[in-house]
Design brief:
Layout lengths: L1 E6 L7 H9 L6 E6 L10 E8 L4 E8 L3 E4 L7 H15 L4 E2 L7 H8 L12 E2 L3 H11 L1 E6 L9 E5 L4 E6 L4 E6 L2 H14 L2 E5 L11 E9 L5 E10 L14 E4 H5 L4 H25 L5 E8 L5 E7 L5 H6 L4 H28 L1
Parallel strand pairs: 1-2, 1-5, 5-6
Antiparallel strand pairs: 2-3, 3-4, 7-12, 8-9, 8-12, 9-10, 10-11, 13-14, 13-16, 14-15, 16-17
């Protein structure tokens, strides 16, 4: 029987997703486990985690060996536990005996450097890695408005808009319930604040792009891409995320709302509608193929595309550990498929590895 191990930093995370997936695993002859990477014994490689009991439909404590295939759903922060678990997951990825559903992507800067050399380069906002507070101040002086993003950020956390006005510097960031704003009377105050920020983590800088609707709300097109059991990339679904009025980001963590893609595309003028739709699909069809030319195999991607007032499209974010809320909200009929797709692809990987093993033996 195939065993699928779901890795998470906290066994309470994504409870609904993991449980709904595990409920459906039995019909694919799969046993589901979930565990925290730091609970692997490095000597014996035995794991203290949980096994899903299909009869009682509950997770039970269990000691078990490394599962056949690992599904990495770890979202790392800057804390010690995150760094410890990331090091363990990186170690697992080097082991030839261990197979991952997907191997994930590097940080946003490495992604930008790779994609900026491809046919998708025109869709990428100009991005630079911040090396000093003075660099931010100088670029903001020149561009007037810039965006700062953590190099390893996710879910819209830690994104700042810095704006140079005639009298002062203004910094904004979106929180779940409100937008936090700070003003600095001079460059030295701004640089002191930036010094403290950059000491905590690495950031990227991009020009601010007004990717907003007519109500001054930031919005983007969130798409979920996954590999099918035939190992072909599929656009599973799209949805529109709309942030708050005068907001910076359209992430759900900042209080954004979700609407369906088909209704949104009909708001585009008829003469441009088909072209925009085709251009979005063209980006989504090419992106995973291009990424896999640079990086190890992937299973799924969340892709955020923004649209400016002139209908130009911009790739805002690419995430190899996407959520499912947008697609589930806008296309609820896909719920069964979303819970089963990791199981289908895990079976495909197992069959492939068995064929490879048989071929090796016959050779």
């Amino acid at each position: 029987m195939l065993t699928l191990g779901i890795m998470t930093l906290n066994l309470e995370n994504e409870q609904g997703y993991f449980t709904e997936m595990a409920k459906r695993a039995e019909k694919y002859n799969i046993t589901c486990f979930r565990f925290i990477p730091s609970d692997i014994n490095p000597q014996s490689e035995m794991i203290r985690g949980e096994e899903f009991d299909c009869n009682q439909e509950i997770w039970k404590h269990k000691l078990f060996p490394l599962p056949s295939i690992l599904y990495d759903r770890c979202f790392y922060g800057e804390d010690f536990h995150s760094k410890q678990c990331k090091a363990i997951v990186d170690w697992l990825k080097t082991k030839k005996s261990v197979q991952f559903l997907g191997y994930g992507l590097p940080n946003k800067h490495k992604l930008y450097e790779a994609l900026s050399r491809t046919s998708l380069a025109p869709y990428l906002p100009k991005t630079v890695k911040i090396t000093s507070s003075e660099m931010v101040q100088q670029l903001c002086q020149k561009m007037k408005r810039v965006i700062l993003k953590p190099i390893n950020g996710s879910q819209g956390n830690g994104i700042y808009l810095i704006e140079k006005t005639d009298k002062f510097w203004k910094v904004k960031t979106d929180k779940t319930e409100y937008q936090a704003t700070r003003s600095f009377a001079n460059e030295m105050q701004l640089i002191n604040w930036l010094d403290r920020l950059l000491h905590k983590k690495e950031f990227l800088l991009q020009p601010y792009l007004p990717l907003i609707n007519e109500f001054n709300q930031p919005f983007d097109i969130r798409s979920l891409l996954q590999k099918t059991e035939l190992e072909e990339w599929s656009i599973v679904g799209k949805g529109i995320r709309t942030g708050k009025i005068n907001g910076i980001i359209s992430n759900l963590s900042a209080g954004a709302s979700v609407s369906d893609f088909d209704s949104w595309i009909k708001t585009i003028p008829f003469q441009k509608r088909a072209f925009i739709n085709d251009e979005i699909n063209d980006i989504l069809e090419n992106l995973p193929l291009i990424l896999e030319q640079f990086f190890p195999p992937l299973f799924e991607l969340g892709v955020d595309i923004g649209m400016a007032e002139d209908y130009s499209l911009w790739i805002l974010d690419i995430n190899s550990k996407p959520g499912r809320k947008v697609v589930l909200h806008s296309l609820p009929e896909l719920s069964d498929y979303l819970y089963e797709s990791p199981l289908l692809y895990a079976n495909t990987l197992l069959k492939r590895s068995q064929l490879t093993h048989e071929k090796t033996l016959s050779d």
